[in-house]
Structures are given as C-alpha cells and as structure tokens.
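Page 47, continued from p. 46.
Same chain as before, 730 aa.
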Amino acid sequence: MPTEEELFAAVDTLLAGEPALPGPAERSRLREAAGVTQARLAQVLQTTTQTVKNWEAGRSEPRPPRRQAYQRLLEGWAQQFPADAAPADAASTATASAAPAPGDTAPAPTAETPSAHPAPAPEAPPRSRTPHPEKAPRPRKAHRPAHRLTPPPADQRFENGPLAVIDVEDGHVLAYCVGGLVLDVPAKSLPALVDWTLTEARLGQPRLHRYGRDGDPLLVLTAAALERYGLPTALSDEERRAGRLPDGHKAVRQLTRADWKLTRRGLGPWARIYRPAEGAKRHCVQLCIPAWNALDAREWDDRNAPRLPSMHPADLARYLGAYAERVMTPRGTAAVTGLELMTALHPPTRAEKDPVTGAFTRALNEDALTAVHDVVECEVPDEHPLLKGRFARHHLRTPAEMLMEEPYDWCRPLTDDECMRQYLVAIDVNMSFAAAANGLTVGLNGPTHLTGDPPFDPSLPGSWLVDLSHVDLSRVRVDGRPVDGGRLPSPFTPKGERPTGPAWYATPTVAYAVELGFEVAPVEAYVRTRTGRYLDAWYKRLRDAYVTTMADLGVTTGLGGAEFLDAMARSRQSDPVMALLVGAIKATAKGGIGKLRQRNRGQVPYHEPWPALERETWRPDIRAAVLANQRIGLHRKLMKTAAAADLYPVAVGTDAVVYPSPGPTPLDVLPRTPEGKPVPGTFRLGVSPGMVKHQGTRTVLWAEEQFEEQGGVFNIANHIKTDPAAGEGE
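Result:
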C-alpha cells in the first residue's frame, strides 16, 4: 500500500499539471529549424516516423518516458531558434553553434540532452561541418544538422563513428555518420575521398582487444556516389563473375597513380584500399558497395520484403553503425565478419619487448589460433588436396571415412494418438550455434594421432573413431523415467538414424554417449593437446548484441511465457531497421561457424588448394565440435521433455523442433511444473541464446496433406511459419 506522503505527492503533481508541450505547428517549426527529419527524430526517441508525424499534426500526444525526452529536446531547440527569428537566422545560429568563436569553450555533451558537437582537438585538421560558402543554408534539409543527437564516442580519433554512408544530394557529396551526424565531403575523386577519410573524417573503431588493431574506416557508397566517383552502378556479367572491376578500369588506374593499393580481391563489392603501414599506423579504407550486392539479402536484408534498396542513407548509417558498434565494423559478408570477430577478440600475436636488446619482437598468444596446422583426412571436405588420389571423384565417403557432425534434419510419421491432436507447434532455438559455442573447449594446436584403442578422454577435443551402435535410448532413464527411443532421433547422426558401425565423432558426441550411461571403446583418434574456450568472448559479444537489439524491439530478458510471445509478435512491426539488425547478428553467428570449414566454391580446380586453407582459422575440427554440441544440446532437451511430459517431436530441422499440440501456441504444449514454471532442462520461452521462441503453427491435417503430396514423409520443421515476416530458423 502507498504511504500517505506518496499519495499527497502524487496529488500535488496532478494539481500542478504536466509541463505543457508547444503546439503541433511549433514542434514542426523547431525540428525543421534544427535541420532534423521526422525519421531521424523518431530514431532518437525510439519510436516510429508516423508517430512523430502524428505529434506534429496534433493527432496524438507523446507519453512518458518519451514525453519528457521530447519536452527537453523542444526546449533546447526553442532556445536556439526563437520564434521571432527568421529562418535564415535560425540556420545561421545552428551553424554558428557548431563552431565556437575563438576563446569560447564548447559545452560538454551529455547522454540526456542534444549538444553542440565538440570542436576537434587543436592538432586535428579542419573538417567540413557547415554548408559551403556559396550555398545558402536551408533549415529544412536533414543534411545540415548543427549538432549531434547522440554523444560522440570517448575515443576522439574516431569521434564520428566507425563508418559513413556516402551520398550525393543537390550536387553535394554528403557523409551520413552514426548518431545523425552528416559531414560535407569536399573530395572530387576516389583517391581524394580515401585521403579525406584518413585525414579529416575521423572514422574508425577502437580495437576490441589490447593486442588487436583498430578497425579501419568503412565507406558505404550509394548509387549516386558511385556515379559521382566514376564507378558503375551495376557490374557487368563478367565483372560479377570475377567479383571485381578489371584492373584497367579508370577508377583503379586513378588509385594506382595516387599510390594506393588494392588487396587480391580488387575493387569489388567489398574493397580495401591501402598504403603500406608506417610502424603501428595503418593507412587503409574499406569500401562497401550495396549496388554490387555487398549486402546480400540472405544475410543483411529481409528476403520476404527487401528494405535496403530503398533505405535512406541516414537509416543505412544507423543500421550498419549499430552493427559495427555492437558486433564490429563489417569486413565483408556477415559470415566473413563473424570469422574476423574471432580473430579480433583473440589476436594471434602481440609485440613483446626483448629485455636484453630493448627491441620489440613478434610473440604468439597462447589463447589464440596462431598457425596453420596439419589437417586430418577424416575432418576435411571431399575437395581437399589431402584427398587427391585417395577416392574416386564421385565416391561417397562413409561415416567411418568422414566426420559427419552436422545439424539435425529429421522427421517421422505421426502416431495415431498424435494425429488426434489438432496442431503442430514449431519452436526455434535462439542463436543456437552461438549458444553451442559458449563454454566449449576446443583445440588450439595441431592434431595428435592416437592409435591402439586409446581410452576416451572428454577433456581432449578432436575426432574419435568409435562404434556407438549399441546405444539404445529406450534403455536410458531420465530423472528416473524411461523414454520411447523409437519416437526420438538418434543423437549420433544428422538424419536421426541409429548408427550401424564404427564412425568418426567429435568429442562432445562421444561424451554424450558416456553421459547416457554407455561404455565407449575408440579404435583411434586425432586430438588436440593445447586447448581453451576460444569462442567464449565471441559468443558473449554476439549474445550482448542480440539481446540489446531485441530489447530495442521491446523484447527483454525479463519476459517469459505469454508476455514474451506478445512482445515477439509486436517486435516485427516495431522498428524495421533494428529488425534487420537482428537478422544480421544471427547470420554473423551462423556464418562465422561455417567459415571455419569454408569450402572450395570453384575458385580453383578440384583437389587444389583454395585461399581459405591459408588461414589459421580454417579449422574444420572446431566447426564440427560446435555443431556436435548444438545437436547434442538439443537432444538433451528432447530427452528431458519426453521424460517430463511424454511429449515427443515429430520433426527437427537444425534448431527448429515440431511438437503435436492440443493448442496453437507453445504454452499449450511445453511442460511446466505445478507452480507454472518450465520444467528444468526442457525448452524455455525467452529471448536469450539457447532459449526458444515460437516459429509457427500448422494443423495436423496440413502435415498429412503435405506428406501425401510429396509421396512420403519429409522434414516439415522449417515449413511451419505462422508469419512469413518471422524469418527462418538458423
């Protein structure tokens, strides 16, 4: 019960009334005088553009806590742009506020109020932050903000953020940065643009590890910017196949004449332009060209309703800027960035001072992948040079010849009792590959070959040749209860079939057989003796990025059950830009693990070395360990659920599980304790990685019709989606 003092305080507040907001017309005038678009204001206040339009049209009023923030912003603008000032004066005032007069001190920005952008340090070169003298300021334009709507980063070397989207408007080149900042770009050519980026733009990202390196600035070029700098707005068929412009292209020649270099991938969708480093100082700029498919819709966009082609440069800067700040500055595809994130968090080397000579030398970091080690025949894909001459070209390697640790792809017919239930409910595990990497011990050095029936050691990551065909799930008791093994997939094969003889398995798979209570007798093994939890920091970075972005969409870690399901349904229409960011983060996690065993995609002839094999991070054994751990973790929950509620899946596809249900939501099927909480060890609704969300619901009749049309049972797990906008499982 509230106290008497609390009640009187509440009444006094009501009597005083809430601070009055300016009228709708004045709200619009102040925003336009500040040169801020409705879309940008919506981003800052974490609402929609339509909501801001309603506020300025008088159709609705803001509610707390946005009301207080909006009130504070309008009051600040009212002081800068009084109602009796002419529009030109307002623009001049805004411009003047960005550059204090000599001897003045710029006010320190805070996280709560809009602030004038701090002047650059005295030693920094001047930057173009105001309209060109020959152009009249136009307050309505969004590309003339005099202040940043969010505070700058602490590292003043990169005060304008990690990247900029370069666009051309009314003949002027603009750089849209994070936080709503827009810079004028004076560069007339591509080499000049690179020079400006490195000398004036103050773009880049601080290193993620003390022994790592700072992130190079990234420029995202719109179609208008491509035309301005002499680049095609689309690649020809030949250029697309090559993945780059020819070396004789005018833009490439311009860079060469200016002593800039390109990496082996040349001037393509993701290009690096650099000069040799001077000591610890790098001279490198990365280009991202969406018009050349740098931002593939399978990773960066909504495949059902693409948004990137029509996205405003400010929104694109917000999207990629948020990705850079929460994950890292993109360095290629989301998959490439996922792999680069591993190295950024665990650099292979460091500078070490020789105590005798005082000179710095290159030293290896023990917790990182530091060398390209020998590979193991059973762990490599069919096209690897190690297998040249070993098998016929179209030979299908058996489980006794190849490590086949892959996600589930399993389905079974429904029983008569299951057909009596009306619905099939699909649940999906959040960030399942990232969650499987958390806490996983992996090998950091090369393989050691164990022969002569070595004893199994769960502390040694690697590959084991062992017969697990004797493992019978029906003999297993979970919390004292038996399970029906015939209605569960085998934990040892991706197709869920029971193994029939010796096969290669990663350490987590063999350890699970021991956990279930069965003896194992390996024939041989390839193990790694230097081990570590290499992927923990990588997982935590991606976990935090995912959870933070979902919170931006209104889905927080404190929600469970019906509240969580409702929040997930609302999130799909909450903020389209942040919704895309969720997909990009998931693609980074999944793709990063896949890149550990990047295959030859036709770069070189079959059985010839391809570029990925030169990386320290080409580690198919680590990928196998993660996928094995993901599959085993899923099976462990399937067993717990079966024992707790006599509930069995009818299909499992990667990280999606389908259960027959009397009702249409996961709440109708997932087991709960008498207190209403999820049964320990079973699937739990929530936003954190490893927890599950609702993927979709179909009827049992729908499934039977699908089986009849296809002529047999097939995996329906990823075909069950209530809302196409919900996306697919990982």
